[in-house]
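Methods — Computational structure assignment.
A single polypeptide chain was analysed. Its primary sequence is given first, followed by the predicted tertiary structure written as structure tokens.
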Amino acid sequence: MDWSRTQAYGLGLTGLYLNQAGREIAGTVPESQRDLLLGEISRRLSRVVDPETGAPAVARVQRRQDYRNRGALEVGPDLVVEFTGGTRNSDGSAGGKVPGEIFTNNTSLWSGDHIMDHAAVPGVLFTNRPLGRPVSGLQNLAAALAAEFGVAFPPPDSVPDQD
């Protein structure tokens, strides 16, 4: 990797980081160019299509301030890529390898994943009986599970006073 010519890099399955001057040891992107480059990367990723199907490969790209909406905005990737169903980052590239091809077929067993757009792959809850309270999304999962065990949710001592 030639860090003197690198503007952005991937780390992990969905995180993209700018090689930002003053933050990275060999940072090349000045703070003044940060927003411009993040916008360019996001736009270009949103236009990537699977050459076999012609379908979009990326559902959306989020900036840190969009996905980290509660404090600690200086921590985490600058961009998070949410892939469409059936598309993902390779295991090798998640570990720092640079593959020769952009798109390849997955030939290994794929038992589960956490890197796709949550709207395309919303998740599954398996139970051995019907739940007494419906679960329509992650936002009400805790309340439904608490109800199954007869636990008040939210716990009475966690609700702020309404003074």
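Note: The chain has a mean pLDDT of 82.
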